[in-house]
C-alpha cells in the first residue's frame, strides 16, 4: 500500500530539513526545494500527492501573495494534488482565504508534530481518492484526452529531421550557447525544449521569453527584474527572467526582433554572467544555459547594422537550422495524421481518413507557414468535412503573397510591409488573425506596424 510522496517548498532550509526528518519515516518519498520557480518542473517529473507550501519567499515580504500565486498555479495544472500551506500565526486569516481558493489545509508555525502528521496523511488520502475518480473518468474518455492535447513532442523521421535531432543530442549535454534558426512555424521552440530535456539541467526550470512581445520600456524589468520603487508601479521587489532561470535554461525566442540599443544590455548580461535589477546597483550572478531562436538572417542584419556582431558570436556557439516542412517529405503525412486524430476527437468526428489523392496534394504544396499552417489546414478540413473521407477539395491553402510581387524588384522590407498591409486588409483589421496568418505574434505585428509607420 503506497504511503504517498511529499514535496516541500520553503525558502528556509532548516524547515525543509526538519520536515524531511519528521515525514521521512511516514511516507514513501519526501523532497524539499527552496525556489518556488522550480515547482512546475518538479511536478512534471515527480509523482507527488501533497505539496507543503510556504506563504512567503522573499525577505521582508509577508503579504502571502507568493503563496497564493503558486497555489493557483499548482491547482490550475494539477487540480488533484493536495496543497497544505505553512503559515505564521499572523497569517491565519490569509490561510483561510487560501482554503477557499483550493488549499487542502494549513499548518501554523510553530507546528505540533502529531497534528502535522495527521494533516499530511489526510491530504494524501484525499489525493488518492481524487486520483481513483480521475482514472475512472479517463477510462470512460478513452483516447480523447491523448488526442486533444497540443503537440509537445517532435514528430517525424525524415533524413532532414533526423540530422537535426542527432545534432540536438550531441549539443544538449554541453553548456554551449545554441542558436536555433528556421522559418516561422517549423517548431523551433520544440527543439529548444528537447535540448533542455536532454541536458544536465533537465531537473531545473526552462524559462521562455518572446523577445518580440516585450516592449522596450519593460525590457529591463522583464529580463532583469526590479526593486521596490524603481518606477511608479514597482510596489515590491520582483525577479526577472534571468534570475528565474538560474541553474536552468533561458530560451530567448524571436531574438532578431530585439532593438539595437537593447542588444548591448543583453550582451553584457550574457558575457558577464551577472546583471543588476532595475533600480539596484547590486550585481547578481547567474548560471544559465542560453538557447536563442530566430527566423531572421542575423548575418545579413549584422551587415546592415541592425544586429551586433559581438552578440551574434555570443549566442551562436552552435547553430541548428530547422528544415522547412516542404523539405521533410513524408513527415507531412505523419504530421497530418497526428493533427487529423487530434481534431477528429476534438470535434467528435471519429474515424476520419485522408484519401491518397488528398495526401498527394498535401505533399505537393509548398507550406510557407510550415507546421503551424498544416495544423490550421487540417483543423479547417475536419470542421467543414461532410464525409468520413477527406478528399483534395477539402483542403484549402492560403495565398502566397510573393506571387503578387514576382515581377517587381523589391527590398525585403518593402515585401514585408506589403504582406502586413495585405494580411490586415484580408482580415478586416483583426490584428490577431492577421498576425496568425503572417506566422508572428500580435505584439510583433504591432512593432512592425510602428516600424513602417502603417
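Sequence proposed for the structure above (454 residues):
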Amino acid at each position: 500500500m503506497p504511503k504517498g510522496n511529499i514535496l516541500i517548498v520553503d525558502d528556509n532550509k532548516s524547515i525543509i530539513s526538519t520536515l524531511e526528518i519528521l515525514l521521512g519515516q511516514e511516507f514513501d518519498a519526501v523532497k524539499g526545494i527552496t525556489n518556488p520557480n522550480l515547482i512546475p518542473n518538479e511536478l512534471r517529473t515527480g509523482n507527488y500527492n501533497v505539496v507543503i507550501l510556504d506563504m512567503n519567499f522573499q525577505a521582508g515580504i509577508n503579504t502571502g501573495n507568493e503563496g497564493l500565486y503558486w497555489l493557483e498555479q499548482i491547482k490550475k495544472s494539477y487540480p488533484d494534488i493536495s496543497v497544505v500551506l505553512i503559515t505564521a500565526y499572523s497569517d491565519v486569516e490569509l490561510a483561510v482565504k487560501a482554503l477557499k481558493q483550493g488549499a487542502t489545509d494549513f499548518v501554523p508555525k510553530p507546528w505540533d508534530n502529531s497534528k502535522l502528521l495527521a494533516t499530511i496523511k489526510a491530504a494524501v488520502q484525499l489525493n488518492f481518492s481524487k486520483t481513483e475518480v480521475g482514472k475512472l473518468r479517463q477510462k470512460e474518455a478513452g483516447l480523447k484526452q491523448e488526442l486533444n492535447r497540443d503537440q509537445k513532442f517532435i514528430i517525424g523521421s525524415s533524413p532532414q529531421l533526423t540530422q537535426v535531432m542527432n545534432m540536438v543530442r550531441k549539443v544538449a549535454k554541453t553548456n554551449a550557447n545554441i542558436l536555433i534558426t528556421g522559418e516561422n512555424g517549423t517548431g523551433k521552440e520544440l527543439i529548444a525544449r528537447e535540448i533542455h530535456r536532454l541536458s544536465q539541467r533537465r531537473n531545473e526550470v526552462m524559462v521562455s521569453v518572446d523577445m518580440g512581445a516585450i516592449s522596450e520600456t519593460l525590457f529591463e524589468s522583464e529580463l532583469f527584474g526590479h526593486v521596490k520603487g524603481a518606477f511608479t508601479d514597482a510596489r515590491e521587489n520582483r525577479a526577472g527572467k534571468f534570475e528565474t532561470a538560474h541553474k536552468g535554461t533561458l530560451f530567448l525566442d524571436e531574438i532578431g526582433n530585439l532593438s539595437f540599443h537593447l542588444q548591448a544590455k543583453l550582451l553584457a548580461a550574457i558575457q558577464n554572467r551577472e546583471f543588476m535589477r532595475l533600480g539596484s546597483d547590486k550585481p547578481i550572478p547567474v548560471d544559465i544555459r542560453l538557447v536563442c531562436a530566430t527566423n531572421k538572417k542575423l548575418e545579413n542584419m549584422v551587415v546592415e547594422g541592425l544586429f551586433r556582431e559581438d552578440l551574434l558570436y555570443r549566442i551562436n556557439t552552435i547553430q541548428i537550422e530547422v528544415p522547412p516542412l516542404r523539405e521533410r517529405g513524408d513527415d507531412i503525412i505523419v504530421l497530418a495524421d497526428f493533427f487529423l486524430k487530434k481534431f477528429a476527437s476534438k470535434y467528435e468526428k471519429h474515424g476520419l481518413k485522408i484519401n491518397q489523392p488528398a495526401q498527394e496534394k498535401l505533399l505537393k504544396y509548398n507550406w510557407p507557414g510550415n507546421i503551424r499552417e498544416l495544423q490550421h489546414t487540417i483543423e479547417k478540413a475536419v470542421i467543414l468535412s461532410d464525409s468520413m473521407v477527406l478528399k483534395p477539395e477539402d483542403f484549402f491553402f492560403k495565398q502566397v503573397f510573393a506571387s503578387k510581387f514576382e515581377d517587381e524588384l523589391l527590398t525585403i522590407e518593402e515585401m514585408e510591409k506589403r504582406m502586413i498591409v495585405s494580411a490586415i486588409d484580408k482580415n478586416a483589421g483583426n490584428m490577431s488573425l492577421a498576425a496568425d496568418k503572417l506566422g508572428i505574434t500580435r505584439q510583433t505585428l504591432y512593432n512592425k506596424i510602428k516600424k513602417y509607420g502603417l
